[in-house]
From TrEMBL:
Pfam families on file: Amidohydro_1
Origin superkingdom: Bacteria
Listed name of the protein: Cytosine deaminase-like metal-dependent hydrolase
InterPro entries: Amidohydro-rel, Metal-dep_hydrolase_composite, Metal_Hydrolase, MTA/SAH_deaminase
Tagged with keyword Membrane: no
GO MF assignments: deaminase activity; hydrolase activity, acting on carbon-nitrogen (but not peptide) bonds, in cyclic amidines; metal ion binding
Location of the Amidohydrolase-related domain: 55-424
Keywords for the protein's UniProt record, in alphabetical order: Hydrolase, Metal-binding, Zinc
SUPFAM superfamilies: Composite domain of metallo-dependent hydrolases, Metallo-dependent hydrolases
Keyword DNA-binding attached: no
Family annotation (CDD domains): ATZ_TRZ_like
Transmembrane segments: none
The species this protein was found in: Halobacteroides halobius (strain ATCC 35273 / DSM 5150 / MD-1)
Length: 452
């Protein structure tokens, strides 16, 4: 049995139900679980780690991403335009995606996430160019397994092309039949419903402006038949709201109700332009939101009513969104952005650093319905990260390790990340892959895509 014993941790931030913090405790990991937390554990282990100088946190959970966009970051022409124009500019570049591009972009995104304390990631992959094999998403599962992240792969889709009144061009749009057949294939091949599973499948039609009404209805039927969750973009911009009013004669959430996309097995990315009454309905039905503060600010989409959502009981997780609208995959910086944004918009008492950490841990767990992640407790999954307190950015600020993590300046890279009982980041470096190789190959593929 593989085992890791972390001795005398400076402080364990458990994020359990009582939000306990434990000082000077030991933590024993056996196989993929936390088997014991106590003041002194006298037991041999394959690896013993001195935790005296470390703060230990639960692994962060990223509830919305587009890994492939790591290859189209910081393109000058896309830096100062809002969502619809931004998409129209980038769709033709994304039409150049290949299996190799998907594989290396996944390694880049997951590597960034792991190095910033994220242990579980959702990716919504929805671009399937006509001239490429249908199984591009398989490359994501392959890469996620190699690097060691807990992966919820979303089989996205676009079926409403520009000529039919949608936003995307024909070359990245599939037929409903193609989408549903491949969605079923991906579920049957990859979905693992075990509480400690390392891979799950989500069905994720892209958005109201890129997917037909019938596909929305058939996708949720398929998801519920197999017991998998469903995810889509919703209420991200005023343009989308106007599209729904003009196309369907109703607001975005009304449209979701019409196509049966409401419930505790559904969550939306963004949810910015939802009214308080709509949010109350989401709280009642336990329909969740992936909050993406950096992307929302960069694209000038607006600020979601997150403090109100939390107050009403809407399930809220944190997310970095796509790397072309962020332009990074850094969950620690995402927490800081959320904290500062809502302090600015809603007032000094509207949110705390611990509230933000709760979104990034407990909130993600609740949205994904994977109960064994999101906190440090005996019997739970061994997903966690450690940060050395003796770093320049913490100097003079050690009184609260949660605020230190969220607010200080040099915590972007953690010292150690453990996923499912395996050390995947050690001394700030990825363990399972060669970072230099990934960087070189990702840069090469990126230039090939952009220059076509």
């Amino acid at each position: 049995m593989s085992s890791i014993l972390i001795k005398n941790v400076k402080e364990i931030i458990t994020m359990d139900q009582k939000r306990n913090r434990l000082q000077g405790y030991d933590i024993l990991i056996e196989e993929n679980k936390i088997s014991k937390i106590d003041q002194e554990i006298k037991q041999d282990a394959e690896e013993v780690i001195d935790g005296t100088d470390y703060f230990l946190y639960p692994g962060l959970i990223n509830t919305h991403h587009h890994f492939y966009q790591t290859l189209t970051r910081n393109i000058a022409a896309a830096q100062n335009i809002e969502l619809f124009d931004w998409l129209k500019y980038l769709y033709p570049i994304w039409a150049n995606l290949t299996p190799r591009a998907v594989y290396y972009s996944t390694l880049v995104a997951c590597g960034e996430l792991l190095k910033t304390g994220c242990t579980t990631a959702v990716d919504q992959f929805y671009v399937f160019p006509h001239n490429q094999p249908d199984n591009l998403i398989d490359q994501q599962f392959r890469a996620a397994h190699k690097i060691g992240i807990r992966f919820h792969g979303s089989r996205g889709s676009m079926s409403l092309s520009e000529k039919d009144g949608g936003l995307p061009p024909d070359e990245v749009v599939q037929t409903e039949e193609e989408i549903l057949q491949d969605s079923q294939r991906v579920i049957e091949k990859y979905h693992d419903n075990d509480p400690f599973s390392m891979q799950r499948v989500i069905l994720a039609p892209c958005s109201p402006f890129s997917v037909t009404e019938n596909l929305m209805k058939e996708s949720i039927k398929l998801a519920r038949r197999y017991g998998v969750q469903s995810h889509t973009h919703l209420a991200e911009t005023k343009d989308e709201e106007e599209f729904c009013q003009e196309t369907f004669g109703m607001r975005p959430l009304e449209y979701m109700k019409k196509v049966n996309w409401i419930g505790d097995d559904v969550w939306y990315a963004h949810g910015i332009h939802l009214t308080k009454e709509e949010l109350k309905r989401m709280a009642e039905t336990k329909t969740g939101v992936a909050h993406c503060p950096v992307s929302n600010q960069k694209l000038a989409s607006g600020a979601a009513k997150v403090p109100y959502m939390l107050e009403e009981g809407v399930p809220v997780g944190l997310a970095v969104d796509g790397s072309a609208s962020n332009d990074s995959s850094n969950m620690i910086l995402e927490m800081k952005a959320a904290f500062l944004l809502h302090r600015l918009v809603s007032g000094i008492s509207s949110i705390t650093a611990e509230d933000v950490l709760a979104m990034a841990t407990n909130g993600g767990r609740n949205i994904l319905n994977q109960s064994q992640i999101g906190s440090i407790e005996e019997g739970k999954a061994a997903d966690m990260f450690m940060v050395n307190k003796n770093r320049l950015g913490f100097a003079g600020g050690l009184s609260d390790p949660v605020s230190a993590l969220v607010n200080t300046g040099d915590t972007q890279i953690v010292d150690m990340t453990i996923v499912n009982g395996e050390i995947v980041v050690r001394n700030g470096e990825l363990v399972a892959v060669d970072e230099s190789e990934i960087i070189n190959k990702a840069n090469k593929v990126s230039q090939e895509m952009i220059n076509q």
